[in-house]
Amino acid sequence: MTDERVTTGVAGLDEMLGGGVPGGQIIALMGSCGTGKTTLSLQFIWAGLQKGEKGIFISLEESEEATINNARTYGWDIQPYIADKTLTLVKLEPSDAKSTIGRINSELPAYIKNNQVKRVVFDSVSLLSMLFDTDSDRRSGLFDLCKHIKDSGATALFTAEVNSENPNVSRDGLVEYVADGVILLRYNETSDGSDIQLSVRIVKMRRANHSRRIKPYNITNNGIEVHSKAEVF
Ligand SMILES: Nc1ncnc2c1ncn2[C@@H]1O[C@H](COP(=O)(O)OP(=O)(O)OP(=O)(O)O)[C@@H](O)[C@H]1O
Ligand SMILES: [Mg+2]
After folding, report:
1. Rounded to the nearest whole angstrom, what is the distance from the C-alpha of residue 8 to the centroid of ligand 2?
2. What is the reported pLDDT for 233?
3. pLDDT at position 2, please?
4. CB contact at 8 A, 27 and 158
5. Is 136 helix (H, G, I), strand (E, B) or coil?
6. What is the pLDDT of residue 127?
7. 28 within 8 A of 125, measured Cβ to Cβ
8. Which residue among 10, 32, 39 is best mutated to probe the pocket of ligand 1, counting the most ligand atoms within 8 A of its Cβ?
9. Residues of the chain whose pLDDT is less than 50?
10. pLDDT at residue 105, as a whole number
């Protein structure tokens, strides 16, 4: 256990976290669609690449090419890092559940260790969750995945969809329990209903003295910007 903090790539969010996420932890990044989960995950990976830290970005949603293009819209050219193997993009096929889960358990932990990967992203763990047949498989599958990643020492971001009826909890209702930290992204309608405001809250973060305040953020051409000095309401 170390007290190392890992920058998220978002200065305002690092400030809310008291310097970044604790190294080696697994953080669930929860929010409804379009709240910027993929963007923030790419920003987290990009911040690592700028410091020479190896990353692996595992997508169950978008192809490698789509991920490269997605990053590029924010000005992050990840292609050279893929070429020199600082970054690995993996597209998992949700249609092939058995082989996907098999690959994650058999190949990923060794890959992280052998290549000294520092940052891992799963986008999204909600889709991964759906690959399991039963609740008990899902629980033990997610638990095993977390254990493997924690053993490897990498810091991980798991994106998760929220429950459509309750945007404070994840769709599978599990990831917030297996993760060490939970960051929640929200849409709020402004009081006159004419606009929406995005807000971020740190629900939990083990071993960190973090802010519990809700802060506004924007998605810009340069990625996510959290306004840690501003109030939402
Ligand atoms: N250059 C940009 N400037 C401002 N906003 C942008 C820009 N690019 C994308 N966005 C906004 O970011 C949103 C997409 O963010 P992102 O894909 O990270 O969300 P997500 O939470 O991963 O969504 P999903 O649940 O669908 O995967 C878009 O819907 C759009 O509103
Ligand atoms: Mg996404």
Report:
1. 17
2. 62
3. 59
4. yes
5. helix
6. 92
7. yes
8. 39
9. none
10. 83
Q: Which domains does the chain have, with CATH numbers?
A: 5-224 (3.40.50.300)
The pTM is what?
0.96
Per-residue model confidence as pLDDT tens digits over 88-126: 999 998 888 778 888 888 889 999 999 999 999 999 999
The answer to whether residues 205 and 21 touch, using CB atoms and an 8 Å cutoff, is: yes
Q: Is the peptide bond before 124 cis (omega within 30 degrees of 0)?
A: yes
The answer to whether the CB of 223 is under 6 A from ligand 1 is no
Query: How many A from CA of 147 to the centre of ligand 1?
Result: 30
Measured in Å, residue 170 CA sits from the centre of ligand 1 at 19
What's the Cα-to-Cα distance from 145 to each of 11, 69, 113, rounded to whole Å? 29, 28, 14
Distance 33 CA to ligand 2 centre (A): 7
Q: Whose CA is nearest to atom 15 of ligand 1?
A: 36
| Ligand 1 pocket, residue 66 CB under 6 Å | no
List of residues 6+ apart from 28 with CB closer than 8 A: 125, 158, 159, 160, 170, 175, 176, 179, 181, 182, 183
Residue nearest to atom 14 of ligand 1 (CA): 34
- Residues 6 or more apart whose CB falls under 8 angstroms from that of 20 comprise 5, 6, 7, 8, 14
